[in-house]
Each structure stands twice: as C-alpha cells, then as structure tokens.
Amino acid sequence: MKNAALTPVLMAALLGLAACAQPAPRQAPPVVDPYASTGGGAVFQGDLAGGTLGAEATAQYFRDTVGDTVRFPADQTTLTPEARAVLARQAAWLSRHSGFTAVVQGHAEETGTREYNLALGARRASAVQEYLVAQGVAPGRIRTLSFGKERPAATCSDEGCYAQNRRAVTVVTEAAPVAALPPAQGMATAPATAPVATAAAQPAAQPIGGTPGAGL
User: Fold this and answer.
1) Which of 7, 57, 160, 181 gets the highest tally of CB atoms within 10 A of its CB?
2) Region label for 46, one of left (φ > 0), alpha (ψ between -120 and 50) or beta (otherwise)
C-alpha cells in the first residue's frame, strides 16, 4: 500500500525532470519599423522599373496618353495648332526616354491616285519628323514611311472618314540592347569572299520612306 501511494509522486517528479530537460523555445527577434518615426509611412525612393511608377516608359503609354496621331486638312501638309500641341508632347516624351526610336507613318484619304497619295503621305510624315527634330529629338532616332491611302483608319466615302485618314502616326519602339562581341582568341579569320555580280541581278524594290533624319 505504501509503495502504491508513492507511485503517483514518483511519476510526477519524473515528468517534471523531463520538462526541465527540454530546451526553452526560441524567441523571435523584435520587428523594427524604419519608418515608424517619419509620420507618413513609407518614403518614396524613385521610380520602379517595370512597375506602376515606371509605366510611362512604354509604347502603350505613348500611344494612349501622349498621343501618337496628328491630322491634316485636305491636300495639306501644314501642321495645325492641335497637331503641334500633340507633337510637343511626343518630343518631350522622346527626350525623356532616349532608349526609344520612332517611325512616322504618313497616310492620306482614298481620293486621288495612288502615286499622289504616297507622295502626300511622305510629305506629312516629313513635316512631323522636322517638327520633332526642331524640338530637340535626335534626327537619327526618327525615320519616315508613307502608306498613302493603303491603310485607312476608317472606311467609308464621306468627309468623316476622309478627315480621320488624313493623318501621320508616330510609332515608337524600344531599341534592342547591342550585344557585345566575344573577345578575339588570337586566331586570324579569312576575308569574306565578295559576291559576284551577274547581269541578271536586279536591285531590290524600296518602300516609299525616308532615311533616319532625312525628310522627303
């Protein structure tokens, strides 16, 4: 009977010893908020590339917010005050984002011959190019291209559609990074063999468009 009474006491003592042998749980270090004393939350540290703050540097932002299209009166290449306001925004954007190049596409309405409208579209594109260069954009970043009446923005035979098609559209593209050439390994390479011209060779057809920095 006496041994039976001592058994629960021994069991409790053994459990207590086992509990003391377990390591104490680790305490997590306190969290320090570096902005706790600023009173205004997180402090702005600049634009984040590719995020919301850097979304201005995209072709979509240029197209939707800056504006990529200017329009002209019938048979005219003169920039209207509205067109100059759009182009001033385009020039400012291109100046801020030097990694982009631009192609100015000239368009015309459906009336008139194909040749006349190609030339008219080219002169409209050149007018836009010259204005952007005058605003400080490097000539080498802009080239021109004329589609004439081949790519209408609206299709119908009335003045409402004609007015939409008399336009120049600035299309911006981010320039690809230039790949670095591998270092020379000290091995000479044989000079390339020049192609042999034949009487049947004909020059490739060129699109109607200007070279970078050269208006038509």
Assistant:
1) 57
2) left
What are the residue ranges in the chain where pLDDT is below 50?
41, 44, 50-53, 187-206, 211, 214-216
Calpha distance 84→90 (Å, rounded): 10
Q: How far apart are the first and last CA of the chain?
A: 118
Q: pLDDT tens digits, residue range 128-142?
A: 999 999 999 999 999
CA distance 58 to 215: 26
The pLDDT > 90 percentage for the chain reads 53
Alpha carbon separation from 52 to 49, 56, 65, 172 (Å, rounded):
8, 8, 15, 20
At which residue do the structure tokens 């995209």 appear? 58
User: Order of strands, edge to edge, in the sheet holding 100-107?
Assistant: 69-71, 167-174, 100-107, 142-148
Q: What percent of the chain has pLDDT over 70?
A: 59
* Tokens 């932002």, residue located: 61
Output the pLDDT for position 192. Answer: 44
Please report, as a single letter, which amino acid is at residue 90. Q
Which residues lie below 8 Å from residue 61, measured CB to CB, with a gap of 6+? 55
Listed in sequence order, the DSSP H helices in the chain are 2-21, 59-61, 81-96, 114-134, 159-165
Candidates 209, 62, 214; CA nearest to 139 is 214
Which pLDDT tens digit goes with each residue over 95-124? 999 999 999 999 999 999 999 999 999 999
- Is the pTM higher than 0.85? The answer reads no
